[in-house]
Hints:
83% helix, 20 helices, globular, 2 domains, mainly alpha
Amino acid sequence: xxxxxxxxxxxxxxxxxxxxxxxxxxxxxxxxxxxxxxxxxxxxxxxxxxxxxxxxxxxxxxxxxxxxxxxxxxxxxxxxxxxxxxxxxxxxxxxxxxxxxxxxxxxxxxxxxxxxxxxxxxxxxxxxxxxxxxxxxxxxxxxxxxxxxxxxxxxxxxxxxxxxxxxxxxxxxxxxxxxxxxxxxxxxxxxxxxxxxxxxxxxxxxxxxxxxxxxxxxxxxxxxxxxxxxxxxxxxxxxxxxxxxxxxxxxxxxxxxxxxxxxxxxxxxxxxxxxxxxxxxxxxxxxxxxxxxxxxxxxxxxxxxxxxxxxxxxxxxxxxxxxxxxxxxxxxxxxxxxxxxxxxxxxxxxxxxxxxxxxxxxxxxxxxxxxxxxxxxxxxxxxxxxxxxxxxxxxxxxxxxxxxxxxxxxxxxxxxxxxxxxxxxxxxxxxxxxxxxxxxxxxxxxxxxxxxxxxxxxxxxxxxxxxxxxxxxxxxxxxxx
Length: 481
């Protein structure tokens, strides 16, 4: 089987895995929103950044190093496993110890016990890292699907039952822990890999040498992505923080669905071509075209249809989150371009440049945040849109240097889909504004018409990404990348 066909199959199964998880996750999120208040989501938002940072400490970039390494031995995998486990315990101890200070910072005493309980998930996650690495290296996302779907379903069911029974924010805590626990259980029951009693200092040093820079980059990105919720929760009300956090979850359920499916597969697949710049450029060019072709209309239409979407599935208490979601979707349209350009640096082994770019971009973004914060939450979100646009320039700079795929060429590849998506979304937005039909009819009618218009117009205009997407669907992408 050729690399491209193997990659295509991998994308299919990874997409199916994320579609199942995100689909169930979206349904659960909408159901939970009917039983929980924005304030309870706000509490979860306050501790999210600390859990995310702890997860980054637990991995320390070893997963990136192992995915990129050619033929890692059992010694490498076992060393990574024991290191992840030790770091997971250390991260949990730090969480447990600092929980009272977090509660004091937010002036919310309930956070102490919430952080100490949900922090257990860090140790659980440490048991699944190596298995996920092995499956990703083999592009075996069908096996991940078998573990992910029951984990998402069981944890979601438990959370909905608890929310209905009046457990409040503890339903969200339980969902997080149960999902990780069940997923880990299924991975281990499949006998994918088992550790041996071996630990190599040289293997650890090698993985740390490459992964540490990506860890610092990821840590900066994690803190940056969550700094908004920290600022909003501190300066505004818990309810506003809940609205922001909920809108962010909805956006991520959709955004991560497509982008992560392709990114998770293409990184290990194209890492095998790291020494062949010509084929690497061809591969990444196709990835960018297909990813943006699918993502642009989804994000644009979700922004246009946000209000009828909320009216159909949620109660009126969540309507203040509509403009938040709309602006997040606009900012999120640039996400695949950011991710794919940064992936090129990882494939080429330039984790030093990866870290450097993250520092530069985060400094710019923090500067924008410091200015936009005086204009409230809407001002902060507009600042995110500006930051996303500005961050593309440094992200794409090294792609032009490393594989001769500069920003101008990338923009020419994605511009047709971007313009077409934007035009259709604007038409849908104004159609919703003047419509007097029930929200459900608006959602179904305008959403369907927009989808048909996008596909027909893409075919008529002979947009290259449309042809590539067709080839992927029928698994005739070609014999070579």
